[in-house]
Amino acid sequence: MASEEEREEWVESLQLQPEEGEEDIGENGDILRRSAKDLSYSEFFWRFMRRNFPVIITDVSQDWECSRNWTLKEFKDLNSNSNPDPSSNSKPDHSLNSNTEPSSNSNPDPSSSPTEAFINFDYLRNRIENCPVPVADCNASYFNSHAKLELSFHDYLERWLSRIEAPRSKEVNCNVEAETETKAPSRDNLYLKDWHLAAQMPGYRFYKVPKYFASDWLNEQLVEQKKDDYRFVYMGPKDSWTSYHSDVFGSFSWSTNIVGLKKWLIMPPGEELKLNDRLGNPPFSIDEKLLDQHGVHYYTILQRANEAVFVPSGWFHQVWNLTDTISVNHNWFNACNISIVWQNLRGNLKAVLNEISDCQQMDNFEAHCQTMLRASFGINYLDFMELLEFIAARRLAPTKFLLFDSYRMNDYHVQYDLECLRRTLGEMSEDPAVHQSPLQLNERCQRLLCRLESS
Predict the structure, then answer these.
(1) If we measure between CA atoms, which residue out of 139, 155, 158 comes closest to residue 147?
(2) How far apart are CA 266 and CA 276, in angstroms?
(3) Residue 213 vs residue 98, higher pLDDT
(4) Phi–psi pair at 419, nearest 5 degrees
(5) Nearest to 54 by CA among 247, 198, 244
(6) Of 245, 241, 253, which Cα lies nearest the Cα of 316?
(7) Cα-based angle 161, 167, 170 (whole degrees, multiple of 5)
(8) Is 82 within 8 Å of 307 (Cβ atoms)?
(9) Pairing mode of beta strands 33-35, 55-58
(10) What pLDDT does 172 receive?
(11) Which long-range contacts (CB under 8 A, 24 or more apart) does 33-40 make?
């Protein structure tokens, strides 16, 4: 086990500095592609995260174990030397077409990108245990989402490999009549999604959270308390996809490609309303034609390996794998968007109250509402209160804590977090449901507020 001195050598400080005026997000409001080599944590915090605007960060995963071992040498050589040509598959005023680095100021060309041949299936099979994994069937829908199934990991890899090898055997058997081809059933399109590999194999350090995403209140609490977290691995074949959605709780998300190429359609908050039907329901799937027909302002992102996409709160999006792809993804929130999460929580409670308003005379009505809120939204008022108490206790502790075993906040960052906690607790203390809670949430709010104000 590493000594305290050795551990200190690994620790990186999250140096948040006071904001110095508002920088432009980018020319013409485009989504920028910035290198981790020259993007500071403080600039990312104020320019992108605090202002809730996307950015693509390059050079983030080249040192990860999964980048070294889940891919083959041919892919690593190609990825380090290639500089693909610009893509031109979307309208100029909607597309991602700017960058701060002249050497990488273009989107990759799908036709020149690494494909499935560069995934090291043997290493994946030997290194990762044959555990059950959650899989989405991209060829089947179920209640406005992809149908779900569970497979063993090694079975999933075999199916994926069989899909890859199918076109090769088709070339070998070129005498098969075209008529037979048209009658053949469609191939599997199975996407391994939302896999909690980091929680399932905690001793396997296959990636490192980039510093930009280390201030993560959600996973900070869940991992420490060994609860279900929001750290995921995605693996999928070419043409697998994630349907149109915004992220859970109104959280941020980040997605880093280990191998492959993804296409994103993403829109600022409010634009999604143009696509809802008369009942307020969003579509299951979108494309450029639909977005243009409804006058939606959107961006197209083509994401290659060793790049992380930062997805801000409330930005609806849909994602396609243009090649066989593996990515690491987190959902998270922190001081920058905790107010958005609180407002979403309140809004979802109002929806629950409206749905069962005719049952207000029942015993324990408030408790029933909170149970339904947790079932529909994922957390309820008690969960939210416990998270704020956990974050406050860590920030107020005399001993400094580590984030993801790698990062330590500077004093200004800690004070910024505490100030955002005060504001959020103040908002909570004005909510009628907090006052009516049988769990004494208002008293807990006031106690924590007093502690923060005296600190």
Answers:
(1) 139
(2) 16
(3) 213
(4) -65, -40
(5) 247
(6) 245
(7) 125
(8) no
(9) parallel
(10) 47
(11) 33/58, 33/96, 33/98, 33/99, 33/100, 33/101, 33/104, 33/105, 33/307, 34/58, 34/99, 34/100, 34/101, 35/59, 35/100, 35/101, 35/104, 36/60, 36/210, 36/212, 39/212, 40/15
- 402: which residues sit within 8 A by CB, 6+ positions away? 11, 408
What is the CB-side half-sphere exposure of residue 296 using CA atoms within 13 A?
A: 28
**In this predicted model, what pLDDT tens digit does every residue of 388-447 receive, in sequence order?**
999 999 999 998 899 999 999 999 999 999 999 999 999 999 999 999 898 999 999 999
For residues 89 and 93, what is the distance between their CA atoms, to the nearest angstrom? 12
H/E segment holding residue 8 = helix 4-10
Q: Considering the entire predicted model, what is its pTM?
A: 0.88
Name the average pLDDT for the chain: 87
The answer to whether 35 and 223 have CB atoms below 8 angstroms apart is: no
What's the average model confidence in pLDDT over 12-35? 83
What's the DSSP call for residue 281? P
How many residues are there in the chain?
455
Q: What is the mean pLDDT of residues 280-293?
A: 97
What is the rounded radius of gyration, in angstroms, for the C-alpha atoms of the chain?
23
pLDDT higher than 50, residue 104: no
Residue 186 has pLDDT above 70, yes or no: no
Phi, psi angles (nearest 5°) of residue 232: -135, 155
User: What value does the mean pLDDT take over residues 126-147?
Assistant: 94
- Among residues 445, 254, 448, which one has the least CA distance to residue 337? 254
- The conformation of residue 403, written as its DSSP 8-state character, comes to B
Q: DSSP letters of 309-347?
A: EEE-TT--EEEEESSSEEEEEEEE--TTTHHHHHHHHHH
Q: Which regions of 203-346 does DSSP assign to beta strands (E)?
A: 231-236, 241-245, 252-259, 262-266, 299-303, 307-311, 317-321, 325-332
Helix/strand/coil for 246:
coil
Under 8 Å between Cβ of 192 and 134: yes
Q: Which residues contact 138 (CB under 8 A, 6 or more apart)?
A: 146, 189, 190, 191, 236, 239, 240, 241
- CA pair distance 284, 295, nearest whole angstrom: 18
Joined tokens for residue 147: 């149908």
Degrees, nearest 5: CA angle 315-320-323: 145
Contacts of 64 by beta carbon, 8 Å cutoff, 6+ apart:
206, 207, 208, 258
Print burial letters for 214-239: b (CB count within 10 Å at least 16), e (below 16): bbbbbbbbbbeeeeebbbbbbbbbbb
